Amino acid sequence: MQSSGHMRENLQGSLYMVIAMAGFAVNDSIVKSLGGILNLGQTLMLRGMFATAMIFVLARLFGQWRSPRVLVMPRVLQRVSGEMLATVCFITALFNMPIGNATAILQALPLALTAAAALFLGEPVGKRRLAAILIGFAGVMVIIRPGMEGFTIYSILALIAVGACVVRDLTTRILPRDIPGLMITFSTSLAVTLMGAAIIPFQGWNPVGATELAKVAAASIFLIIGYYFVIAAMRIGDIGFVSPFRYAVLIFAMVIGFFAFGEHPDLLTLAGSAIIVATGIYTLYRERVVHRQSITPPPNRS
After folding, report:
1. Is there a domain that residue 237 lies in?
2. Which of 35, 65, 82, 214 is the most buried (most CB within 10 A)?
3. Ramachandran quadrant class, 204 (left: phi over 0; alpha: psi -120 to 50; beta: rest)
4. Number of structural domains found in the chain
Protein backbone atom coordinates (compact mmCIF):
# COMPACT_ATOMS: atom_id res chain seq x y z
CA MET A 1 0.00 0.00 0.00
CA GLN A 2 1.31 3.43 -0.93
CA SER A 3 1.06 5.99 1.88
CA SER A 4 0.33 9.66 1.37
CA GLY A 5 3.85 10.32 2.68
CA HIS A 6 5.32 8.16 -0.07
CA MET A 7 3.29 9.96 -2.72
CA ARG A 8 4.37 13.30 -1.31
CA GLU A 9 8.03 12.24 -1.47
CA ASN A 10 7.64 11.21 -5.11
CA LEU A 11 6.01 14.51 -6.06
CA GLN A 12 8.59 16.47 -4.08
CA GLY A 13 11.40 14.52 -5.73
CA SER A 14 9.99 15.22 -9.19
CA LEU A 15 9.78 18.95 -8.42
CA TYR A 16 13.37 18.94 -7.19
CA MET A 17 14.45 17.19 -10.39
CA VAL A 18 12.76 19.80 -12.60
CA ILE A 19 14.46 22.60 -10.63
CA ALA A 20 17.81 20.81 -10.98
CA MET A 21 17.36 20.41 -14.73
CA ALA A 22 16.55 24.11 -15.11
CA GLY A 23 19.75 24.95 -13.22
CA PHE A 24 21.86 22.59 -15.33
CA ALA A 25 20.35 23.86 -18.61
CA VAL A 26 21.17 27.49 -17.83
CA ASN A 27 24.66 26.49 -16.65
CA ASP A 28 25.25 24.49 -19.84
CA SER A 29 24.21 27.40 -22.04
CA ILE A 30 26.60 29.79 -20.27
CA VAL A 31 29.44 27.26 -20.45
CA LYS A 32 28.78 26.74 -24.16
CA SER A 33 29.00 30.49 -24.76
CA LEU A 34 32.50 30.37 -23.25
CA GLY A 35 33.61 27.45 -25.43
CA GLY A 36 35.52 29.57 -27.97
CA ILE A 37 37.15 31.72 -25.27
CA LEU A 38 38.14 29.47 -22.35
CA ASN A 39 39.44 25.93 -22.57
CA LEU A 40 38.04 22.98 -20.64
CA GLY A 41 40.46 23.22 -17.71
CA GLN A 42 39.89 26.95 -17.25
CA THR A 43 36.13 26.55 -17.40
CA LEU A 44 36.07 23.78 -14.80
CA MET A 45 38.52 25.47 -12.43
CA LEU A 46 37.15 29.01 -12.54
CA ARG A 47 33.52 27.93 -12.35
CA GLY A 48 34.40 25.49 -9.59
CA MET A 49 36.25 28.10 -7.54
CA PHE A 50 33.18 30.36 -7.49
CA ALA A 51 30.81 27.46 -6.81
CA THR A 52 32.92 25.82 -4.09
CA ALA A 53 33.32 29.09 -2.20
CA MET A 54 29.58 29.79 -2.34
CA ILE A 55 28.68 26.24 -1.27
CA PHE A 56 31.07 26.48 1.69
CA VAL A 57 29.38 29.70 2.84
CA LEU A 58 25.89 28.20 2.40
CA ALA A 59 26.85 25.01 4.28
CA ARG A 60 28.16 27.06 7.19
CA LEU A 61 25.16 29.38 7.12
CA PHE A 62 22.59 26.55 7.18
CA GLY A 63 24.46 24.33 9.64
CA GLN A 64 25.24 21.64 7.06
CA TRP A 65 29.03 21.74 7.32
CA ARG A 66 30.65 18.55 8.64
CA SER A 67 34.16 17.32 9.32
CA PRO A 68 36.36 17.21 6.18
CA ARG A 69 36.69 13.48 6.85
CA VAL A 70 33.33 13.13 5.11
CA LEU A 71 35.06 14.10 1.85
CA VAL A 72 37.20 10.96 1.83
CA MET A 73 34.50 8.44 2.73
CA PRO A 74 34.53 5.62 0.12
CA ARG A 75 30.93 6.22 -1.01
CA VAL A 76 31.48 9.96 -1.29
CA LEU A 77 34.65 9.38 -3.33
CA GLN A 78 32.73 6.95 -5.55
CA ARG A 79 30.06 9.54 -6.21
CA VAL A 80 32.64 12.25 -6.85
CA SER A 81 34.48 10.00 -9.32
CA GLY A 82 31.27 9.50 -11.30
CA GLU A 83 30.60 13.25 -11.31
CA MET A 84 34.14 14.07 -12.47
CA LEU A 85 34.02 11.62 -15.37
CA ALA A 86 30.53 12.78 -16.38
CA THR A 87 31.55 16.45 -16.25
CA VAL A 88 34.71 16.20 -18.36
CA CYS A 89 33.01 13.99 -20.96
CA PHE A 90 29.85 16.09 -21.23
CA ILE A 91 31.52 19.50 -21.36
CA THR A 92 33.97 18.25 -24.01
CA ALA A 93 30.97 17.07 -26.03
CA LEU A 94 29.13 20.35 -25.35
CA PHE A 95 32.04 22.39 -26.72
CA ASN A 96 31.99 20.42 -29.97
CA MET A 97 28.33 19.73 -30.81
CA PRO A 98 24.95 21.56 -30.63
CA ILE A 99 23.64 22.00 -27.09
CA GLY A 100 20.34 20.34 -28.02
CA ASN A 101 22.08 17.21 -29.37
CA ALA A 102 24.42 16.86 -26.41
CA THR A 103 21.55 17.37 -23.96
CA ALA A 104 19.34 14.92 -25.84
CA ILE A 105 21.92 12.12 -25.71
CA LEU A 106 22.14 12.63 -21.96
CA GLN A 107 18.41 11.85 -21.80
CA ALA A 108 19.22 8.16 -22.04
CA LEU A 109 19.94 8.58 -18.33
CA PRO A 110 16.38 8.15 -16.93
CA LEU A 111 15.99 4.81 -18.71
CA ALA A 112 19.48 3.62 -17.74
CA LEU A 113 19.06 4.78 -14.16
CA THR A 114 15.64 3.19 -13.72
CA ALA A 115 16.96 -0.12 -15.05
CA ALA A 116 20.03 0.10 -12.79
CA ALA A 117 17.89 0.92 -9.73
CA ALA A 118 15.71 -2.12 -10.40
CA LEU A 119 18.76 -4.33 -10.96
CA PHE A 120 21.05 -3.19 -8.14
CA LEU A 121 18.70 -1.62 -5.57
CA GLY A 122 15.66 -3.84 -6.11
CA GLU A 123 13.32 -0.90 -6.67
CA PRO A 124 9.96 -1.91 -8.16
CA VAL A 125 9.24 -0.56 -11.63
CA GLY A 126 5.69 -1.16 -12.85
CA LYS A 127 4.90 -1.91 -16.46
CA ARG A 128 3.10 1.39 -17.01
CA ARG A 129 5.92 3.42 -15.48
CA LEU A 130 8.52 1.59 -17.56
CA ALA A 131 6.38 2.10 -20.67
CA ALA A 132 6.21 5.85 -19.94
CA ILE A 133 10.00 6.01 -19.63
CA LEU A 134 10.47 4.13 -22.90
CA ILE A 135 7.98 6.38 -24.71
CA GLY A 136 9.73 9.44 -23.29
CA PHE A 137 13.05 8.12 -24.56
CA ALA A 138 11.42 7.55 -27.95
CA GLY A 139 10.52 11.24 -27.88
CA VAL A 140 14.20 12.03 -27.31
CA MET A 141 15.11 9.89 -30.32
CA VAL A 142 12.54 11.76 -32.44
CA ILE A 143 14.29 15.00 -31.53
CA ILE A 144 17.88 13.94 -32.20
CA ARG A 145 17.05 11.53 -35.08
CA PRO A 146 20.31 9.61 -34.63
CA GLY A 147 22.19 8.50 -37.72
CA MET A 148 25.69 7.28 -38.36
CA GLU A 149 26.61 10.54 -40.12
CA GLY A 150 25.90 12.48 -36.94
CA PHE A 151 27.38 9.97 -34.52
CA THR A 152 30.89 11.23 -33.69
CA ILE A 153 33.46 10.74 -30.96
CA TYR A 154 31.69 13.53 -29.07
CA SER A 155 28.45 11.53 -29.16
CA ILE A 156 30.36 8.65 -27.57
CA LEU A 157 31.69 10.98 -24.87
CA ALA A 158 28.12 12.06 -24.12
CA LEU A 159 27.13 8.37 -23.76
CA ILE A 160 30.07 7.77 -21.40
CA ALA A 161 28.74 10.71 -19.37
CA VAL A 162 25.41 8.85 -19.10
CA GLY A 163 27.11 5.79 -17.60
CA ALA A 164 29.08 7.96 -15.17
CA CYS A 165 25.86 9.72 -14.08
CA VAL A 166 24.26 6.34 -13.33
CA VAL A 167 27.14 5.54 -10.96
CA ARG A 168 26.86 8.99 -9.41
CA ASP A 169 23.09 8.87 -8.83
CA LEU A 170 22.93 5.29 -7.55
CA THR A 171 25.70 6.15 -5.10
CA THR A 172 23.77 9.24 -4.00
CA ARG A 173 20.83 6.98 -3.19
CA ILE A 174 22.85 4.82 -0.79
CA LEU A 175 24.83 7.57 0.94
CA PRO A 176 24.15 7.84 4.68
CA ARG A 177 21.27 10.23 5.34
CA ASP A 178 23.28 12.03 8.04
CA ILE A 179 25.55 13.54 5.37
CA PRO A 180 23.85 16.86 4.45
CA GLY A 181 23.13 17.66 0.83
CA LEU A 182 25.31 20.79 0.83
CA MET A 183 28.25 18.75 2.13
CA ILE A 184 27.87 16.32 -0.78
CA THR A 185 27.54 19.28 -3.15
CA PHE A 186 30.75 20.76 -1.73
CA SER A 187 32.69 17.54 -2.27
CA THR A 188 31.51 17.36 -5.87
CA SER A 189 32.33 20.99 -6.66
CA LEU A 190 35.76 20.79 -5.01
CA ALA A 191 36.72 17.65 -6.92
CA VAL A 192 35.68 19.08 -10.29
CA THR A 193 37.61 22.29 -9.51
CA LEU A 194 40.79 20.33 -8.75
CA MET A 195 40.31 18.29 -11.92
CA GLY A 196 40.09 21.50 -13.94
CA ALA A 197 43.29 22.78 -12.34
CA ALA A 198 45.04 19.51 -13.24
CA ILE A 199 43.99 19.84 -16.90
CA ILE A 200 45.23 23.44 -17.35
CA PRO A 201 48.97 22.60 -17.70
CA PHE A 202 48.10 20.48 -20.74
CA GLN A 203 45.86 23.10 -22.37
CA GLY A 204 47.47 26.40 -21.44
CA TRP A 205 45.82 29.57 -20.20
CA ASN A 206 43.71 31.90 -22.32
CA PRO A 207 43.17 35.55 -21.35
CA VAL A 208 40.17 35.99 -19.06
CA GLY A 209 38.33 39.31 -18.98
CA ALA A 210 35.69 40.75 -16.67
CA THR A 211 32.88 39.56 -18.96
CA GLU A 212 34.15 35.98 -18.88
CA LEU A 213 34.50 36.06 -15.08
CA ALA A 214 30.95 37.38 -14.74
CA LYS A 215 29.65 34.56 -16.95
CA VAL A 216 31.60 31.96 -14.98
CA ALA A 217 30.22 33.34 -11.69
CA ALA A 218 26.67 33.19 -13.07
CA ALA A 219 27.22 29.64 -14.33
CA SER A 220 28.44 28.59 -10.90
CA ILE A 221 25.21 29.80 -9.26
CA PHE A 222 23.06 27.71 -11.60
CA LEU A 223 25.47 24.78 -11.21
CA ILE A 224 24.95 24.87 -7.44
CA ILE A 225 21.20 24.80 -7.99
CA GLY A 226 21.58 21.78 -10.26
CA TYR A 227 23.99 19.97 -7.94
CA TYR A 228 21.93 20.48 -4.80
CA PHE A 229 18.50 19.68 -6.16
CA VAL A 230 19.57 16.58 -8.11
CA ILE A 231 21.05 15.25 -4.86
CA ALA A 232 17.83 16.09 -3.01
CA ALA A 233 15.75 14.42 -5.74
CA MET A 234 17.82 11.22 -5.66
CA ARG A 235 17.51 10.90 -1.89
CA ILE A 236 13.69 10.82 -1.74
CA GLY A 237 10.97 9.07 -3.68
CA ASP A 238 11.35 6.22 -6.16
CA ILE A 239 14.13 6.54 -8.73
CA GLY A 240 11.78 5.09 -11.35
CA PHE A 241 9.30 7.90 -10.68
CA VAL A 242 11.72 10.81 -10.25
CA SER A 243 14.18 10.01 -13.07
CA PRO A 244 11.85 10.67 -16.05
CA PHE A 245 11.59 14.30 -14.99
CA ARG A 246 15.17 14.67 -16.19
CA TYR A 247 13.60 14.95 -19.63
CA ALA A 248 12.61 18.48 -18.61
CA VAL A 249 16.19 19.60 -19.29
CA LEU A 250 15.65 19.00 -23.00
CA ILE A 251 12.70 21.40 -23.03
CA PHE A 252 14.74 23.99 -21.13
CA ALA A 253 17.68 23.50 -23.53
CA MET A 254 15.43 24.02 -26.55
CA VAL A 255 13.97 27.24 -25.13
CA ILE A 256 17.43 28.57 -24.25
CA GLY A 257 18.79 27.47 -27.63
CA PHE A 258 16.03 29.45 -29.35
CA PHE A 259 16.52 32.68 -27.40
CA ALA A 260 20.28 32.56 -26.74
CA PHE A 261 21.69 30.83 -29.81
CA GLY A 262 19.00 31.41 -32.43
CA GLU A 263 18.30 27.68 -32.81
CA HIS A 264 14.88 27.08 -34.37
CA PRO A 265 13.28 23.71 -33.54
CA ASP A 266 11.63 21.95 -36.47
CA LEU A 267 8.32 20.08 -36.47
CA LEU A 268 9.85 16.75 -35.41
CA THR A 269 11.67 18.44 -32.55
CA LEU A 270 8.42 19.96 -31.32
CA ALA A 271 6.66 16.59 -31.71
CA GLY A 272 9.35 14.83 -29.69
CA SER A 273 9.10 17.50 -27.00
CA ALA A 274 5.34 17.02 -26.84
CA ILE A 275 5.87 13.27 -26.32
CA ILE A 276 8.31 13.95 -23.48
CA VAL A 277 5.95 16.38 -21.74
CA ALA A 278 3.04 13.94 -22.17
CA THR A 279 4.96 11.10 -20.51
CA GLY A 280 5.78 13.35 -17.56
CA ILE A 281 2.12 14.27 -17.15
CA TYR A 282 1.13 10.61 -17.44
CA THR A 283 3.68 9.63 -14.79
CA LEU A 284 2.14 12.14 -12.38
CA TYR A 285 -1.34 10.90 -13.26
CA ARG A 286 -0.38 7.27 -12.59
CA GLU A 287 1.07 8.25 -9.22
CA ARG A 288 -2.25 9.80 -8.22
CA VAL A 289 -4.19 6.74 -9.46
CA VAL A 290 -1.95 4.31 -7.56
CA HIS A 291 -2.18 6.43 -4.44
CA ARG A 292 -5.98 6.65 -4.68
CA GLN A 293 -6.27 2.88 -5.15
CA SER A 294 -3.98 2.22 -2.20
CA ILE A 295 -6.10 4.23 0.24
CA THR A 296 -9.51 3.06 -1.05
CA PRO A 297 -10.76 0.18 1.07
CA PRO A 298 -11.86 -2.96 -0.82
CA PRO A 299 -15.62 -3.36 -1.30
CA ASN A 300 -17.53 -5.26 1.36
CA ARG A 301 -18.58 -8.56 -0.19
CA SER A 302 -20.35 -9.93 2.85
Report:
1. yes
2. 82
3. left
4. 1
